Amino acid sequence: MILLVGCGEKIKPSVASTGVGKDIPAQESWNTTITFTDSGRVTATVYAGHVAVFSNRKVTVLDQKIKVDFYNGREEHTSVLTAERGTVNDETHDLEAYGNVVVVSDSGATLKCEELFWSNARQLIHTTAFVEVTSPTEYIRGQGLESDQSLKNYKIFRVTGQAQANE
Description:
The protein is mainly beta. It has one domain: lipopolysaccharide transport protein A fold, CATH 2.60.450.10. Helices cover about 0% and strands about 65% of the residues. The protein is built from one helix and ten strands. The longest helix is centred in the first third of the chain and has 4 residues.
């Protein structure tokens, strides 16, 4: 009796089982829309060119330009945020946005900064970064900000420049 042993391609272990590249995403998608809700009401809709979900870190990475539409408790649109990239905490649904962050409210105010954080539970945005806020009545620059997501009630922590609009 002759035993034939074939020379075939050896089965390679998966990347995950070798320990190499442990931080690979569990899921990826492109041109994605994510909707956040609270008690069935839409609070925000996120659009991203690329989304990577890292289950082990409980974080979703958004990149290739992101856009977020914010809504109030009556599901009325209040503002839109754009940024180069961001992350979402998968447990709290809080959002961090980075790179040329711009928030434009439906009431006419505009916020510009390099990083911004949105608390889903509190429906507030905040940053410690340098900010510029332009509204129909004023232009303010400063360090750090906390605001409702409609930019109607904001506080700049260290104002470095301010100008009133001519009436």
